């Protein structure tokens, strides 16, 4: 019977065969302990000299790290292991012998590990991070599918910037200028006018020359847009969604969080509603915390966000930022036109902004005014303007950065470990 490590709980007391790689091994006289991995998980195989033929025991003693093999044996429960099971090996079959595997069981620097990212992904910690990432993606689809959203895929190649920013990757689209998308939002607004509630999930690109632990050049965004929803409606969706994702990871990634040594007590309290603080009050709070240089009208940096988050145990919304430091499409507060009906969601424990969102301008005349103020002339944005011309409605949306969310939930210091093959300022390899 062939099976996988993730399924061995079904075969306790039975003999099975697993195709695996050798992650590590140790031996003690007449017993060899093989740390096996097969992509679905990690498990120990115990090879007792008296229970196998001489050839199999010699192989168990001498097999090299990351060699591939078929392992056959009986599954038994093992209360000492976090996994809970191990294999009493009866036979081994070598598939391929790995020679001089570069990532040995010792400390390696981050640049060395990033140079060998294609191999580093095999390690137990990196495997756990990717499993957490996968669960966040699964829970995302579950949340939006069960709440009546339609998934729409916006283009990656665009003729304009969603944010009106210059931090874009330029390319030629035959004889036209084109850019790699930094957000699918504008297209999702069009989709919301057709389907009501929509979401996208895909790669986005920022040509931002930043080296911080929170930034990637290529990252993945979840971007919902919702017709007939105002700013407060959107905040409720955001906190319900994030709560669902966190609780799903806690439920379905217990072993991975244990491998990552994540303090899950800090995640167990992540349930809606989340606290909210206005930008005005956030500036006051920062001044009280010793940030005397911050002035009203300035955007917050990482130290500011961390200081604000320290006052709360849950993610916190910072709302009503000054209109002048936000994107052209954000709806001004009708009671106070110098601030926008917007919010950033700041994760606890110093992980920074994970969501940015707002109510969008729905008035054609106001949007035309914003176009003029931001110099958005020509045909590139004409289609977006027409969304306010033909059946405009109040609508809101937000974008969640997947990698920052993975970093927070998994307790990982740097976002470079939260994506399979990170693209950083000085890294396009492997």
From TrEMBL:
One annotated GO biological process: asparaginyl-tRNA aminoacylation
For this entry, the protein name equals Asparagine--tRNA ligase
- Family statement drawn from the similarity comment of this UniProt entry: Belongs to the class-II aminoacyl-tRNA synthetase family.
Q: What are the entry keywords?
A: Aminoacyl-tRNA synthetase, ATP-binding, Cytoplasm, Ligase, Nucleotide-binding, Protein biosynthesis
Q: Which SUPFAM superfamilies match?
A: Class II aaRS and biotin synthetases, Nucleic acid-binding proteins
Localization: Cytoplasm
State how it assembles.
Homodimer.
Which EC class, in a word?
Answer: ligase
Record's catalysed reaction(s): tRNA(Asn) + L-asparagine + ATP = L-asparaginyl-tRNA(Asn) + AMP + diphosphate + H(+)
Q: Which PANTHER family match?
A: ASPARAGINE--TRNA LIGASE, MITOCHONDRIAL-RELATED, ASPARTYL/LYSYL-TRNA SYNTHETASE
What NCBIfam families does the database record attribute to this sequence?
A: asnS (TIGR00457), PRK03932.1 (NF003037), PRK05159.1 (NF003483)
Claim: Ligase is one of the keywords in the record: yes
What terms describe the molecular function in GO for this protein?
Answer: asparagine-tRNA ligase activity; ATP binding; catalytic activity, acting on a protein; nucleic acid binding; transferase activity
All copies of domain Aminoacyl-transfer RNA synthetases class-II family profile, residue ranges = 130-430
Does the keyword field hold Zinc? Answer: no
Q: Name one GO cellular component term.
A: cytoplasm
Name the EC number(s).
6.1.1.22
Organism placement in taxonomy: Bacteria, Bacillati, Bacillota, Bacilli, Bacillales
